[in-house]
């Protein structure tokens, strides 16, 4: 079942103060099916951030369609788009985006509180997710009193609290040391493998990407190549390095 469908997406940044017009996305099309874990890779400037901004509704495409769960979000007006995002999309950002004024449990509950869900249901869902991510004893702590790896798990629990159709992860290993990077990637894999979450992750990092089941490589705003994992992470990692050496992209 298709969860995300991108149809011939283009994004042209118009010229500004003498700078030239830039075609950041040049007719990208792909689909992501339910329960897939797909990575988007590509060299610096290839259009990854632009793509993620359009997919998550932060920015508008110049032409083409973005369809999430059969809804064409390119056509939604601002308020409806904000509501659609809150109900259907989960986000995991590089810098966690946790609120320091709320404790861990409140941070995870926030999307449900905004949705005016009943307190009993909120309590049940939050407790389940805290158990799932092994953070059940952190509920009363504040983000500045927990480790980077714990913050990532809190962020993952918050991303899942609304039972979203798809999760967008933006460079989740960005600023992390290798141990925390391993923790967050195991966490995202667990979401994908054990509760069948559909995940689209943008990353520079071949280690993070090796956890994906499929990777779409983009360059100059176009899809250049696609590779699929046979389940062996080491072999997939080597394959990613090989593709990067051909199309370019940092290791
Ligand atoms: N707001 C903007 N105005 C004009 N040009 C932009 C803007 N944002 C991005 N670009 C240009 O669009 C192209 C794609 O940029 P984008 O940030 O999507 O690439 P990226 O793959 O995310 O790069 P990186 O890996 O370095 O973050 C680049 O040429 C960039 O300079």
Topology:
Elements: E1 2-13, E2 22-33, E3 37-41, H1 48-55, E4 63-68, E5 71-72, H2 78-88, E6 89-92, H3 104-114, H4 119-132, H5 148-160, E7 166-170, H6 178-194, E8 199-202, H7 206-209, E9 214-219, E10 222-228, H8 233-247
Parallel strand pairs: 3-8, 3-9, 6-7, 7-8
Antiparallel strand pairs: 1-2, 1-4, 4-5, 9-10
Helix pairs in contact: 3-4, 3-5, 5-6
The protein binds adenosine-5'-triphosphate.
Question: Characteristics of this structure?
Answer:
globular; 6-stranded mixed β-sheet; 37% helix; alpha/beta; binds adenosine-5'-triphosphate; Rossmann fold; 4-stranded antiparallel β-sheet; 8 helices; 251 residues
Care to describe what's here?
With 251 residues, this protein is an alpha/beta fold. It has a single domain (2-247), classed as 3-Layer(aba) Sandwich (Rossmann fold). Helices cover 37% and strands 25% of the residues. The protein has 8 helices and 10 strands. The protein has helices at 48-55, 78-88, 104-114, 119-132, 148-160, 178-194, 206-209, 233-247; strands spanning 2-13, 22-33, 37-41, 63-68, 71-72, 89-92, 166-170, 199-202, 214-219, 222-228. The strands form 2 sheets. A 6-stranded mixed sheet has the order 6-7-8-3-9-10, sandwiched between helices. A 4-stranded antiparallel sheet has the order 2-1-4-5, covered by helices on one side. Strand 1 (2-13) and strand 2 form a beta hairpin. The longest helix has 17 residues, at 178-194. The protein is globular. Adenosine-5'-triphosphate is lined by residues 13, 22, 24, 42, 44-50.
